Amino acid sequence: MDHRLDTQINPAEIDWNKIWNKVNGANIKCGAYGECASIWKSKEHARAFLKNSMENPGRVHHIIESLPLSPDYKVLDIGSGPGTVAVPIAGRVDHVTAIEPSPGMADVMEEYAAESGVKNLRIVNKRWEEIDLSADLEGSYDLVVASYSLGMQDLSESIKMMCEVSSKWIYLFWISGMPSWEKGLVDLWPKLHGEDFNCSPQADIIYNILYSMGIYPNMKASRLQHQNRFPDLDFAVSQYSSVYNIQDSKQEEILRGYLNKNLIKTEDGYELPETNMCTAIWWDVG
After folding, report:
1. Do the beta carbons of residue 34 and residue 240 sit within 8 Å?
2. Residues paired with residue 77 on neighbouring β-strands, in sequence order
3. What is the model's pLDDT at position 7?
4. CA dist 247 to 40, 43, 190, Å?
5. 8 Å CB contact between 89 and 96
6. What is the CB-side half-sphere exposure of residue 29 using CA atoms within 13 A?
7. In whole angstroms, how far apart are CA 80 and each of 147, 148, 171?
8. pTM of the model
């Protein structure tokens, strides 16, 4: 008897961008982190994010050391946050253009650049999807980077835009497996909002989108550890209230109880350890 299947799935017929949009759209609809840019309107929270990153340099170091930097390079950094990657890179290349939609993050990045003596960094306060490639950017870039900033619908169109402005390299960094920060959302979301939490799309979908576009990238996954630090429980609750979309005092008390149980008390306040898989995806546009 012939046990072969009569029908086979043709990967070329799968619309991976549509799958990304569905999974990403469900994640956005949950309302975690509010509007991706609006959560960081506060300069206080943006400064806390930068401070946390500088106290835990492993992820930033891993990203920067993964990049093929050269003193004569022009670099485009998409979704720069407070400049955790853009500012250090600027000290090693000719020019960096940073795309960051959040006003608070952009202001703190400007402060960070000034404190670091960086003068070759230009900040564009827009979403990547809203960028006018001819008016907002400075020609082509030797290297385009997007690290943990791909939470956009129609990812294939965003990648096409990256390809249009890159003369050589594109590097994307994203998650594989459920990250630690989403485990808390999965645990607590039903208690807070009465429904399950829909997780972010992962790196496998990005790879398949690229493959369907005729791009065959390199991939490397690395396990990274991170410590989120807070001076006190009230500050931790304040930080996570936007993340967990806290709307009333009852929800806040649930969040406070969860953090009080899961945060680790230290001499300087509280810590929340994380272990996540960082996946680098890169290719030569040429």
Report:
1. no
2. 98, 145
3. 55
4. 17, 21, 14
5. yes
6. 10
7. 8, 9, 14
8. 0.88
